[in-house]
Design goal:
297 residues, alpha/beta, Nitrilase/N-carbamoyl-D-aminoacid amidohydrolase, 6-stranded mixed sheet, C-N_Hydrolase_sf, Carbon-nitrogen hydrolase family protein, hydrolase activity, acting on carbon-nitrogen (but not peptide) bonds, in linear amides
Length: 297
């Protein structure tokens, strides 16, 4: 059987004020419209940016009277609207038979701060996983969120998929960990207007020979749009860089005949594993005086 998965990566408009009920509802509506478009294109999984329902700006949630940052007052957030929109997204995922990964907040019992999370909903409309961002920025950990603890891997149609969020792109061990967990793809959802971060994401496709979905908010897409990286590092699909909501769609095909993908999957990834697992251990020369730096020439 062919081992394939059609992935859609969205760039949707991400609101930054969790107290703005209208903006949260508009975000949910846009997410659902893009879900319907992805399903119409044959996608089995659609990925949205970090904080797709809302990614709270520090200036909205953690600004004191004098403008200095203070711990966020999360009682101001419209938690009821966030929950309603998340439930509507999950219900539509079941109707469309479409796996959906979207960013939002997960509240914890006060006085604990919420998690910044990526929610994974199955094609039955059931929440099957929640990835809580583990590596936070200084502002996030100081004033806004509680860090998560564990990697998350879920499986769709035999394809293993890992999750990461935004600043975590700057922590290579996290992506090496997913390679050790034998994922076929990592979903990296971001809320940042930053071209270098996309290049780092592309590098992980090269280094670890897996697919990578890179989802960015529509309002930042003029700098770098959402897209899908193939094993080996090539961009397979990208959204328009025009500030508008859109989808990038490509197939994850474990039996791909594309030369660069085939080399990455069949040769580069297995060889890297062999090399790291001690391939050279029995080939090292010991006790050879010619290895002395003083006799190097």
């Amino acid at each position: 059987m062919a081992r394939t998965l059609r992935l859609a990566v969205a760039q949707s408009t991400v609101p930054e004020d969790p107290t703005d009920r209208g903006a949260l509802r508009a975000a949910g509506q846009e997410i659902r419209a893009l879900m319907a478009e992805a399903a119409g294109a044959g996608a089995r999984l659609v990925q949205f940016p970090e904080g797709a329902i809302t990614y709270p700006s520090k200036h909205v949630m953690a600004a004191g009277p004098d403008g200095k940052l203070v711990p966020a007052d999360w009682s101001r957030a419209a938690w009821d609207v966030m929950r309603e929109e998340a439930e509507s997204i999950a219900a539509l995922a079941g109707e469309l038979r479409l796996w959906t990964a979207f960013g939002s907040l997960h509240p914890l019992t006060p006085p604990n701060r919420p998690h910044n999370s990526l929610f994974v909903v199955s094609d039955r409309g059931e929440l099957v996983a929640r990835y809580d961002k583990r590596f936070l920025s200084n502002t996030e950990v100081s004033y806004l969120y509680t860090p998560g603890r564990e990697p998350v891997v879920f499986e769709v149609d035999g394809i293993r998929i890992g999750c990461a969020l935004c600043v975590e792109a700057n922590f290579p061990p996290l992506f090496a960990e997913y390679e050790r967990l034998d994922v076929d793809c990592v979903l990296l959802s971001v809320m940042v207007d930053d071209a270098p971060r996309a290049r780092v994401a592309q590098a992980y496709g090269t280094l670890y020979s897996y697919w990578l979905g890179y989802a960015v908010p529509a309002q930042f897409s003029a700098t770098v749009p959402s897209g899908i990286v193939a094993p080996g590092g090539r961009w397979l699909a990208r959204c328009p860089a025009d500030g508008q909501p859109a989808l990038a769609i490509a197939d994850i095909d474990l039996d791909s005949a594309d030369p660069d993908i085939d080399v990455a999957l069949r040769y580069a990834r297995p060889w890297r594993r062999l090399a790291q697992d001690g391939l050279y251990k029995d080939r090292l020369v010991t006790g050879d005086p010619r290895s002395d730096i003083r006799t190097a020439f």
